[in-house]
Amino acid sequence: MSVWDDLPGQEGTVATLTKTAQLGNPTHAWLFTGPPGSGRSNAARAFAAALECEAPAEQPRGCGVCEACRLVLGGAHPDVAMISTENVSYAIADVRELIGKAQDKPSRGDWRIIVIEDADRMTERTTNVLLKAIEEPPPHTVWILCAPSPADVLVTIRSRCRGVSLRVPDTASVTELLVRRDGLTPEQAAFAARVSQGHIGVARRLARDEGARTRREQVVALPLHLPTLPAAMEAAARFLELTTAEAESEAASREQADEARLRAQLGLAPEEAIPPQLRSHFKGLADAAKRRARRGTTDAIDRALIDLTTFFRDTLTLQLGTAQELVNEHLGEPLRRYAAGTSAAHSLAAIDAIAVARRRIIGNVQALLALESLMTSLIASPRNGATS
Prior knowledge:
By secondary structure, this protein is an alpha/beta fold. It has helices at 11-23, 40-52, 67-73, 92-102, 124-135, 155-158, 171-182, 186-195, 200-208, 210-220, 229-266, 279-320, 333-341, 344-362, 367-377, and strands at residues 29-33, 80-83, 112-116, 141-147, 162-165.
């Protein structure tokens, strides 16, 4: 066991980070980048654990079994802060609080480590507040920023960080991890790894949650049922309904887990009435859940649009005869009929239209309007007969 176990297919990066931790003199600021599913946050957490690792000097850093490693991986190490936002963007006040925390000396380990997940969600003003802290950090502080790509972070920040680039692991690596760690059968793991396109978190959710699998299949199959404009309008509403249900399901699970954790911390039984003096804690929990709601829905829509893209990626693969593995091979004959009945130009245009819809929704365009526009553009002009 080691802290790197959740990073399949990243052997080169793991070797570099392990060596850096072993030397014990890390760069003061890091930027971990990679597409969704590449494991940016997992890599940042593992690196933080390796830096704080208490294993003997002759052993590789990041043993995963010492108390320091277990505390970091469990989110309980006093010197390691994993920061994320439930809002659309980070608030300046939150970043200023982090800068104050960065001045504190480590209370247990060798380093005060601050990991900022989704650093691309910082506005320019917020990033400028962080800049000076990264330029002139205390000698005991290490900043680790995570973002999809270097371009998502201001050049003034990324020029002061050491870059670590991660890639999405291949299907075989994710399959092996799901079998070894999560106890899935090889068939379950292979299916989840393929349709998630190597995204470990999504693969695990699809393998474990039948409702999530059903919602994904309904989204991916929508292009098979878009013969007319009214059908496109109906599909847009259905798409929003499915993604909202997905977001609500995840939010409910998260809220239940958070409440159970809070009850345990406060010494309350699962069904015990909340004393008046503790109600403010649970109100804060409810307020946080409301703040997560907007981002949760937006993220669920974006994930579903990525799933929808795989349908047209598959049709394009069939139309061009590239012999590449199909993400949605299980759709079988209907997928092949659709590919035969439409053109490669239509598939390319559909992929572009989905990308436009994603940008619009992230940019706060009303979701239903953006989806109606998208579904209208996906209506196929059949070639060689019907498509379904």
